């Protein structure tokens, strides 16, 4: 078996764990590296739909809009931590039907836009830690029926209102605990 390693330069973002048809690609520091069997005669073609994990952490994205990531239809995990995100547009994640883990930690968001998701989605893990969240007024578990983990740790310095206040008022934290207990019994 002869393996060929190809390194692509000047990628605008980092991709991790692209595995498709005997090809395995990893990336770091804006370099995409792919290893595949040249004996199979198939050319290396990396399509956005092949990507399962998308790591955009540390990139500069002030306002995340729908068209920025909507083409990654098969992505299951996205890391958008430490990007300077202030807002997430309506429908930004609505085309990502397989997304189960989303990390939006260490950004500058003051609110969480539930309209960035479609009505019901498969999200299991949502990380919003270390943001400037003031309230989660629009947060509803109905939109996140499979949510196991909602991380709101590490309130940012300068946040005058407790980001957990609205959650406590609506008992969402206790509801999440009940959902987790219920899942353990299934």
Automatic annotation (TrEMBL):
Is Chloroplast one of the keywords UniProt gives this record? Answer: no
What Pfam families does the record point to?
LRR_8 (PF13855)
Identify the stretch annotated as signal peptide in this record.
1-21
Q: What is this protein called?
A: Uncharacterized protein
Please name the taxonomic classification of the source.
Answer: Eukaryota, Metazoa, Ecdysozoa, Arthropoda, Hexapoda
Q: Which organism is it from?
A: Henosepilachna vigintioctopunctata
SUPFAM superfamilies listed in its UniProt record = L domain-like
Keywords on record: Signal
Give the residue spans that cross the bilayer.
none
